[in-house]
Each structure stands twice: as C-alpha cells, then as structure tokens.
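An example makes the point: we let one protein speak, the chain in one-letter code, the fold tokenised, and here it is:
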Amino acid sequence: MKIKVVIHKAEEGGFWAEVPAIPGCLTQADTWEELLPNIYEAVEACLVV
C-alpha cells in the first residue's frame, strides 16, 4: 500500500509529517531518522482505529 506523506520542517526545529488521506494523522520528531519510524507508527495507529 502506498500512502502520500507530506513532511514539513518545523519552525522551532525538527520535522513534522501529515498524511492527507487520513485526517488527523500527524507525527513529529527532532531528526529525519526519528521521523521515519514515527510515520509508520502513526499510519498504523490511524488505520487500526
């Protein structure tokens, strides 16, 4: 399954990501390396609901 994720650079530092196809599916992290697993976890949690 492919899901579009939009990644933004946070003004206060770090990154945050949203999944436009799943309203309210957001995550954030201090580094790119931390963000990627957070995205997978957020998508999985949103789809379980």
Q: What stands out?
A: The longest helix spans residues 32-48. The beta strands are 6-9, 15-18, 26-29. The chain has a mean pLDDT of 95. The helical segments are 32-48.
